[in-house]
Amino acid sequence: MNSLPAALALSLRQLGDRAILGVLFKTALITLGIFLAGGAALYVGVERAIDSFTQADTSAFGALVAAAGMIIAGWFLFRVVALFVLQFFAEDVVRAVEAKHYPHAAHGVRDIPFTEEIGNALRSLVRTVLANAAALPVAALLLFTGIGAAAVFWAVNAFLIGRELRDMVWIRHRSDPAESAPMGGVNRFLLGGVVVALLAVPFINLLAPIIGAAAATHMVHRARQRVPNA
Fold this sequence. Notes:
Elements lengths: L3 H10 L4 H34 L7 H28 L3 H12 L12 H28 L6 H23 L14 H15 L4 H23 L4
Helix pairs in contact: 1-8, 2-3, 3-5, 3-8, 4-8, 5-6, 6-7, 6-8, 7-8
């Protein structure tokens, strides 16, 4: 029962829980708010830049540029922003899953200071940006293949997101920072791959981080049950 399909199935069944719906509402609202604020800032910036060269009414053009910028940013950055925001509410998802399926695990949970949460979220953001920037030249070389570039970004982000989701759960239970996480690399990569794919689907992408966090909770705890003295 520690397989990815089983973890995803259990996660989908629990989406209706009040605690998880609350996290979904908060993360979706904040994530969309960030993009709307970015679009507004882009609109103002374009308007001011054009006004410095001409006195003509360019509000329609500025709105068009802002809308195009939001679409492009949403396509490339939604997963980064959504997972960054989720870092601050992931504990609610993990607690909800643990309360229902692994009540024994709740006794070993450590409180994570807000400063540590900030540090983890910023490190995750930096890793994601740097890894995708490093993958960009490789993806550019594979553009002619049609799917090569997309495959490169999928693989890079599957690795990153799988790691982030596992760590969201594991750091709450580990007794030593040097302690190895019980969730294997293959399962971690596959989980990340599923979440990356879901993040590419409009509207479903709002659910993807929540599903990923819940599934990671199942996979970490199922793996811990197989490790002696875990």
